[in-house]
Structure formats: structure tokens, C-alpha cells
Amino acid sequence: MNREEQIALAQQIAQALPEVTRNEWMRWVQIADRYGLEKAVQHAERVAQDITMRPAIQRANRLIAQAVRSHLTTLQRLQTQEQQAVLGYVSWWLRITTLRGSLREEG
Questions:
Q1: What are phi and psi of 2, to 5 degrees?
Q2: How far apart are the C-alpha atoms of 80 and 18, rounded to whole Å?
Q3: How far from 81 is each of 1, 2, 65, 76, CA to CA, in Å?
Q4: Rounded (5°) CA angle 95-98-99
Q5: Full-prediction pTM beyond 0.70?
Q6: Is residue 105 a contact partner of residue 23, using CB atoms and an 8 Å limit?
Q7: How far apart, in Å, are the Cα atoms of 58 and each of 51, 54, 96?
Q8: How confident is the model at residue 46 (pLDDT cuts 50, 70, 90)?
Q9: Are 12 and 89 in contact (CB under 8 A)?
Q10: Given CA atoms 83, 1, 21, 61 in this order, what sign does their dihedral have?
Q11: How much is the pLDDT for 98?
Q12: What is the DSSP annotation of the chain?
């Protein structure tokens, strides 16, 4: 998968993550790096159901689980470096989206 395709895939995932902060995404990526995508998605699904978590954290993890699960087959076909690149690009998209939102609020 070339860089343009990786960025396009990352954008699709990022668009499915409204209200997910870059920090929350990066926390999830650390779990994915350590335990793999499937286990990380399962973890996000568990956190989404955990009543001891704040509603915003539950929602973020529910969105992460849904977005990644919908692209899981594609992501799992990639080599490890390509997977990491795509997940990194997602955080980049989330950062851009957050910046745009904060710029709009200031204007």
C-alpha cells in the first residue's frame, strides 16, 4: 500500500471518530502496538461498556472500536510498519480536525 493509500485509509478511519481526542487515540494505539489490533479493539469495546468510565471515554472507545473493526481486515493485511503508519496518520488527521475546530471557535 503506497503512502497516498495509507493516508486515504487513515482519513476514512479518522472521519469515523468525531469527538475522539488525539490523546485518547494515542492511548489506544499504544495498546494496539503492544497487544495487536484485535485485542486492542476488544479492549476498546470493554472500556466502552465500563460504567466506571466517564461517558466521554466510553464514547471515544466505542467509536474507536467501531471505526477500526470496520477496517480491520484491510489493516491486518498490512505489514507492521504500514499499520503503524496508518495509525499515525489517523492521529495526524485528528490533530488537524481539532485545530480546525479550535480555529473556528476563535473566529
A1: -80, 170
A2: 26
A3: 11, 12, 21, 11
A4: 85
A5: yes
A6: no
A7: 8, 6, 23
A8: very high
A9: no
A10: negative
A11: 72
A12: --HHHHHHHHHHHHHT-TT--HHHHHHHHHHHHHH-HHHHHHHHHHHHH-TTS-HHHHHHHHHHHHHHHHTHHHHHHS-HHHHHHHHHHHHHHHHHHHHHHHHHHH-
CA 107: distance to chain centroid?
28
Measured CA to CA, the distance from residue 86 to residue 15 in angstroms comes to 14
95 and 22 Cβ atoms separated by less than 8 Å: yes
| Interval 59-104: pLDDT, tens | 999 999 999 999 999 999 999 999 999 999 999 999 988 776 655 4
Residue 13 has pLDDT above 90, yes or no: yes
By the 8 A CB rule, do 61 and 21 touch? no
Residue 99: predicted pLDDT:
73
